[in-house]
Amino acid sequence: MSIAYLGPPGSFTEAALSGLNVPTDSAVPYSTVRQALDAVRSGEAAAGVIPWENSVEGSVTESVDTLSAGRDLRIVGETLLRVEFALAVPPGDTLASVRQVLTHPVAHAQCRTWLHEHLPRADVVMAASTAQAAREVGTAAVPGCAAIASPKTLRRYGLDIAASDIGDRRDAVTRFVKVARSRTGSLPTGIDRTSLVVPLADKMQHLHTVLEEFARSCVPLTAVLSRPGGFGLGTYSFLLECEGHVDDPSVGPIVAALAQRHAAFVLGSYPRAELGRTALST
User: What PANTHER family would the database entry show (predicted)?
Assistant: First the structure.
């Protein structure tokens, strides 16, 4: 069966597929994270690959919210991708003529300083992905329009690089996760990560007790992200990520306790990607 990913072709997500052992001929691009995950939920695709976290901008909230909205999918793997950004224009155009820039919100956040210094008056328009931005600018070829994406993607859509290496951080890395309809998830490897959601809603006063569960068991937390709880202002749900597998004797009891007391649920336990060992490059 096919593997869904956030497209179109040329996206950073497509570049991350090899790190998750996804054959190119089985990968099918979707326009949004929701569409990619819906394809997995419906059985149209066997699994999906989506961006999850960036070292500069933090979590990709669209991915976190869309995956957390249901309990039928699990993260089964992750990979890291070093990202590089460039700005490109249609052939014959120049940097000086740019009045509008298309890109993805996460890419924009990583190139904000460069844009402020070099194109302070340009309007920034958000696209579903950097590859979508490159495709739109390459197809329309409207003078004064530019796109921010990886250099390979920009050239793929027939654009000329007007400025290279425009990211605020040259060591930027994005984490991508593979999601599948799996009740059991991945088996422990000894180098794992567990992601779970704790829907505290209007019980924010219990957050310290949740965190104490990890501190008491000496299980390292790697991420704590608050998201709107869906019950009005001031209500929150939390994405927590920790080292270890849910089947580990140190992690399992924490997850069980949080499930009983706060209706927490696991998004996945899966092999943890390490920067020096597994990071890919665009």
Answer: PREPHENATE DEHYDRATASE P PROTEIN, PREPHENATE DEHYDRATASE-RELATED
Q: What is the DSSP string of 174-215?
A: EEEEEEE--SS-PPP-SSEEEEEEEEEET-GGGHHHHHHHHH
The tokens for 257 are 């306790």
* DSSP 8-state code for residue 41: H
Give how far Cα 19 sits from Cα of 13, 53, 90, 96, 228, Å: 10, 16, 31, 38, 32
Beta bridge partners of 233: none
In a domain, 70, yes or no: yes
Distance (Å, rounded) from C-alpha 62 to C-alpha 44?
21
Residue-wise pLDDT tens digits, 85-107:
999 999 989 999 999 999 998 89
234/279 Cα distance (integer angstroms): 37
Q: What stretches of 208-282 adopt beta strand conformation (E)?
A: 221-228, 236-243, 265-271, 280-281
- The label of the residue with tokens 């219990």 reads 206
222-233 tens-digit pLDDT: 999 988 866 667
Tell me if 168 is assigned to some domain: no
Say if residue 75 is in the same domain as residue 186: yes
Buried b (16+ CB within 10 A) or exposed e, 81-116: bbbbbbbbbbeebeeeebeebbbbebbbebbeebbe
Distance between CA atoms of 101 and 89, rounded to whole angstroms? 9
Place of tokens 């859509």: 157
Whether 219 and 235 map to the same domain: the answer is yes
Please indicate, yes or no, whether residues 42 and 121 belong to a single structural domain of this protein. Answer: no
Q: Which pTM was predicted?
A: 0.86
Q: How many CB atoms lie within 10 A of CB 200?
A: 19
Report the distance separating Cα 22 and Cα 34, nearest Å: 20
Rounded CA-CA distance 57/250 in Å is 31
